[in-house]
Amino acid sequence: MALADSARGLPNGGGVSPAAGSGATAAAAGGWSAFPEIVELNVGGQVYVTRRCTVVSVRDSLLWRMFSQQQPSELPRDSKGRFFLDRDGFLFRYILDYLRDLQLVLPEHFPERSRLQREAEYFQLPDLARRLAQARAATAAARPAALHRDGSLCADEPPLLGCLEAEPAEGGAAAASAPSPTASRSPSGGPLLTPSQSLDGAGGRRSGYITIGYRGSYTIGREAQADAKFRRVARITVCGKTALAKEVFGETLNESRDPDRPPERYTARYYLKFNFLEQAFDRLSEAGFRMAACSSTGTCAFGPEQGGPADDKIWTSYTEYVFCRD
After folding, report:
1. What is the pLDDT of residue 232?
2. Cα atoms in the Cβ-side hemisphere of radius 13 Å centred on 230
3. Could you tell me which residues are beta bridge partners of residue 84?
4. pLDDT, position 221
């Protein structure tokens, strides 16, 4: 049986249960709601606290349907009672910003326009999705072969960004494409770039350094070879230029600790979504990097000091590997 229009797109099948139907109808008609005024959301592991009037500000959106057409008991919750949405928690901040005043200002060098458009379509925000699509189309038409200031080719993401509704900067694309007086031509005879923006002549690849670091621990018991519990890596960190890190590791790079870093800037706050050093080394090798140096420090503690067996020795080490691409 087809669902009514007011129930389409809702979690849990979209409908209101017969027992709760009269309450939901009364809430919509009478202006009161069974939801609290302050709403806590868990979106993909990121927690947001906002007013209910914010999430229902766009009529017929998915959030409006959830928080005005359904009852609290019908929506999924996490272990702490927060309403749960299985979506991208970091991009949801921009969805929430848009819901507050129906405008959106994105950070400079924002690399996630396509994914944000997909989120806007999922949450059924057609005006936001339309603006994002228009901005991408205008950029692709005006600068199809544009270069970021760090020398990286951009497909549909502009290197500079303001409000989606803002007017173009004075001078337009001509001023933006004007070469710097101090720029130098790349060995391949390509666009004028400053020395720090040089491209590899063969594949258009940037030269630079990436440092991989990890803190690991292992335990050696009385019978060293039989009882050894080998390396346990909690997190692999990535330090270097943002554009290089994203080029090499792509979707496996966790940017949550430094989400809006411009591509020409450096960061030491990224880490990988996997815990295998060899996997990181494989990706660096495939991208043309070679190891230039490494260093390591370590400490040793006896098991009883760490709550372990008396005869065990617990070793903790921090190691860094420096990779470069000429």
Report:
1. 65
2. 2
3. 42
4. 58
In the numeric block, which tokens belong to residue 280? 């990181």
Query: How far is residue 93's CA from residue 78's CA, in Å, rounded to a whole number?
Result: 19
Contact 146, 173 (CB under 8 A): no
Helix (H) or strand (E) holding 213: strand 208-220
Token pair in block for residue 200: 């590899």
For the chain, the C-alpha Rg in angstroms (whole number) is: 26
Q: Give residue-wise pLDDT tens across range 286-319.
A: 999 999 999 988 887 765 555 555 566 777 888 9
Weakest mean pLDDT among 46-55, 102-111, 114-123: 102-111
Q: What tokens does 147 get?
A: 């270069």
Instruction: Output the furthest CA–CA distance in the chain (Å, rounded).
Output: 74
Residue pair 185/179 in contact (Cβ under 8 Å)? The answer is no
- Rounded-to-integer distance, Cα 164 and Cα 129, Å: 11
Listing DSSP states for 120-179 in one string gives: HHHTT-HHHHHHHHHHHHHHHHH-TT-B-TTS-B-SS--SS--BTTPPPPTTHHHHHTPP
The two tokens of residue 84 are: 């749960």
Q: Are 76 and 42 in contact (CB under 8 A)?
A: no
Q: Which helix (H) or strand (E) holds 29?
A: helix 18-30
Q: Which residues face 91 on adjacent strands?
A: none
Alpha carbon of 30 to those of 18, 161, 210: distances in Å? 19, 43, 60
Report CA dihedral (8, 113, 240, 207) to the nearest 10 degrees: 130
Residue type at 168 in one-letter notation: P
Q: Residue 226's pLDDT band (boundaries 50, 70, 90)?
A: very low
| 146 has a pLDDT exceeding 90 | no
What is the per-residue pLDDT across 158-213, written as a single tens digit (0 to 9) for each?
443 444 543 444 444 444 444 444 444 433 343 433 333 444 444 567 889 999 99
